[in-house]
Amino acid sequence: MVVKSLLVGLLVIAGVACGSDEEASDVREYSSEIRSNFLESCRGAGGSDSECLCVLEGLEGEYTEEEFIDIDAEMAGGGDPPPFFTGLATRCS
């Protein structure tokens, strides 16, 4: 279920991230808009608060915001999620 939540969250974030003029920062926490949209989408797809936050924090620890946006765009175009995503979703569920 968390994998599905993650994928839904990423697709929603793609539209937000592509329209943002904010520059990525060196801080390993995504913008409040991306965080909020991810958590809302993840919960809407059935993820619990703790699962969704676990996945988000895991992504922030592994990928910069720019890398996350690039991966999201690839997935929105039909690409598969990186293996790290699947492992993270499994650990957080």
Task: Please provide a brief summary of the model.
Helix 1 runs antiparallel to helix 2, helix 1 packs across helix 4 (65-76) and helix 3 runs antiparallel to helix 5 (83-92).
Topology:
Layout: H1 2-18, H2 32-44, H3 49-62, H4 65-76, H5 83-92
List keywords for this structure.
93 residues, mainly alpha
Written description of the protein model:
With 93 residues, the protein is mostly helical. The longest helix has 17 residues, at 2-18. The protein has helices at residues 2-18, 32-44, 49-62, 65-76, 83-92. The protein has one domain (2-17, 28-92). The protein has five helices and no strands. The chain is globular and about 25 Å long.
Radius of gyration: 12 Å
Low-confidence stretches: 18-25
Q: What fraction, in percent, of the residue positions are helical?
A: over 70%
Q: Compute the number of helices.
A: 5
The N- and C-terminal alpha carbons lie at a distance of 8 Å
Give the tally of structural domains: 1
Structural class determined from secondary elements: mainly alpha
Overall pLDDT level: 80
Global shape = globular
List SSEs in N-to-C order. HHHHH
DSSP, total strands = 0
Report the major sheet: none
